[in-house]
Amino acid sequence: MATEPRIYPSKRFRFEIKDNLWKWIFLLPAVAIILILLAVPVVWTLYAAFTDLHLYRIGDFETEFVGLANFEKLMSNRSFWRTARNTVVFMLGVVPAQLIIGLTVALALNNITRGQKLFRTWFLMPLMVSPVVVSFIVGRMLFQEDIGPINDILRNLGFDGVPWLTSPTWAMVALMAIDVWQWSSFMILMLLAALQGVPPDLHEAARVDGANQLQSFWRITVPLIMPITMTALLIRIIDAFKVVEIIMVLTGGGPGQATESVTLAIYRTGVKGGDLAFGSSQAYFLLIVLMIFGGAYLVLTRRAMGKD
Amino acid sequence: MGLNAQKRLRSTISYCILILWSFILLFPMYWVGITSFKNAIDMSIKATYLPFVDFQPGLHAWRYLFVDRLTWFLDPFMNSVIVAFVSSTIALIIGSSAGYALARFDYGGRNNSIVLGFMSQRMFPGALFILAFLVMFRELGLLDTRLSLIIVYSSGAIPFIVWVMRDFFEGLPVEIEESAMIDGANRLGVLFRIAMPLAAPGLVAVFVLSLIGAWNEYLVALTLTFREAITIPLFMTMQVSQTGYTEWWNMSAISLVSVIPVVAAGMALEKYITGGLTFGALKG
């Protein structure tokens, strides 16, 4: 589909003038809404990052431009860098785990014929569950230190119970486990779609030519599923950098600041603390990081679309 | 080892992997399920796993939710229903019209770029929006209203609806639409009488997905609402901060009520939903 020249039927009609009107009526509401609700916050936040805007002082005081002061504060703010580090650690923990689980389960799914639809349907489940329910209800019950089932099972197996929510390291592990539980399904479904796009006769031909299965996997499957895999990874990286909800409700960023993510820090400074200016500078820092990965994502997507 | 034996071994390993992962996905949900039938005593001494074996299940959490405290739960539940349905309907109409337009009209050869513009929304952090929205909706006097959530959620769903529906409409034959137009129908008629009905599976998928997105959203709801317009996820977390300790059986019952409808809808429409979920990477 991508390589065929696209024919726009409107060119073939005599009603072109009237049709030209509909062309804009259909498109413009969507463009207008996105421009207002996307561009206005983006521009406003940039403005706020250069001022001393404070939620509780709006209207009472003149807002002053402070130049780069917020960004200077950001650079030397140890608490902020702590949250930046936490976010990167979280991302580096969950994304590879999701890739490995995603690939393993997708390969298994691609291998079977009976029951494939049943498993595929069941694997959708975690994607539909609210992060609040997963993290707050499920997470807090399962990781409960005294009588939670995970520690209970560990103890029955002869291990010590793990201080899930009171140790900084284990609290991060618990959060990662929740994210992996919820989002591996996304990788599974993406990679399954990619695997199903690999023509089976290629493997057949390779086998006839004497390639073993491992060679056939590395030389044929991997290159062919690479574009979709990269896109799926970029989407997961972007989402992992934005993580906040599961943290808010499982650990609240604690113990101490051990699991606070950048987004949670922005919420805490900007919304709870009312320091819109400093919060905005943090948000811009996050945006710039995300734009690197988002840019790569858009390039890949553009390539998948083919020519206009 | 013969080829057949090798095949059998591979499929046995595959089933083991699939069953193991299915079990990992099931366990937390099973736990919520049984907890909603537990009494306080079943959760204070040791972990209990099996109803009737480890503990005697009771219906008190469900009675508490549906009889004693129904009115108290009903408000956030209705807020969630109204916000999710209204925002998804608005997003569906606006987003699918734009998707149709981008599939059928030529915008100076820039159609793909326009779609990518919509898609770029994905990289903007929610943290950036909550600050701006907080001030915007405060100035408009819309804090703690369902309207504020409806506005935010519909704009949040439009980009992916545009993307999915454009693909969907491109896959439909143009000939039917052409002959209808030669017979004197205008574009609006073509869109609503011909294209939309043919695209019904895609429309259902994007509608349900945006419904689920709005139903589960937490960060924006937490920022913009606090009493009258709170949705279920917010309501759940507020219960604990108010009482200081958690009545897990009641919380589990509430969770199930909020989770089951969307999970059931999503799984029932699996065929259509998977295409919509993987949007941004796969065609159709």
User: What's the overall average pLDDT of chain A, rounded?
Assistant: 86
Q: How many H/I helices of chain B?
A: 13
CATH topology of the largest domain in chain B: MetI-like fold
Globally, the shape of chain B reads globular
In CATH terms, what is the fold-level topology of the largest domain in chain A?
MetI-like fold
Strand-and-helix sequence of chain B, N→C? HHHHHHHHHHHHH
Structural class of chain A comes to mainly alpha
Low-confidence stretches of chain A: 1-5, 10-15
Q: What pair of chains forms the biggest interface? A: A-B, 115 and 111 residues
Termini gap of chain A: 12 Å
- Bin the helical content of chain A: over 70%
How many domains would you count in the coordinates of chain B? 2
Calculate the mean pLDDT score of chain B and round it.
86
The oligomeric state of the chains shown is heterodimer
Question: What is the overall silhouette of chain A?
Answer: globular
Just name the CATH architecture of the largest domain in chain A: Orthogonal Bundle
Largest sheet of chain B: none
Q: Any idea of the CATH class of the largest domain in chain A? A: Mainly Alpha
**Contiguous helical run count of chain A:** 12
Please describe the biggest sheet of chain A, giving its number of strands, its sense, and whether it closes into a barrel.
none
